[in-house]
Structure formats: structure tokens, C-alpha cells
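Collaborator request, handled under Task 6.
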Amino acid sequence: MAVAPNLALAEVKGGYYAYIFKVDVAENGKLAIDVWDGGPNFRPSVHGPCTKPWYAVARYPLTDERTKAMLSVALASFLGHRRVYVNTDGCNADGTYVLFGIQLEDKP
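C-alpha cells returned to the collaborator:
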């Protein structure tokens, strides 16, 4: 009997980055970010082998309070070039990372 994979059980992984340098809200209402740390894109060695490591896309639409909070933190990093810790939770169906959380660092 075949069992479908449960994406909710993906391992949450995270890493530090210099700052968020791309913030996008797509037509479908999803928040997407990209990070900078000496170069663009997420590090697959930290977050896992997704096929499109240049974006992490929030699981929930922008109307969700969790995504609104992540947008605020992402914009603070983007505008102030503030260091962040970004958590991802596996890969989306399109090959991007699932954005799980963003923490803003106290030091610029």
C-alpha cells in the first residue's frame, strides 16, 4: 500500500543571512523573500535540496496574521540591511523553500 508523503512533517531548518534583499508579494497573495550573504539565494547545505533555492515562499497568504508578521520583519531587514535568521520547512511544489519564520537580529 502506497503512502503519500506528509509535507507537514518536513524538518524545520534555519540559517543566518546578512539581510533580505528581495521582498515580493505575488498576484496569488503569497509572500516571497530572497536573502543576501555574500551572494544571493538560500544555502542548500543549510535548508536542504530544493530545486529553486532563490526564494522562500510563505505557506499562508498575506491575509494570514503569521504572514503579515513575517512581511514586517522582512521589510525591516530589507530597508535597514539588518541581519536575519530564516527558518524553512521543506520545499513547496514549485521547488522554492517553504518560509516558516524570520527573526531580526539586534545588531545591524
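The cover message to the collaborator said: "Strands lie at 12-17, 19-25, 30-36, 56-61, 84-91, 97-104. The radius of gyration is 14 Å. Please let us know whether this matches your experimental observations."
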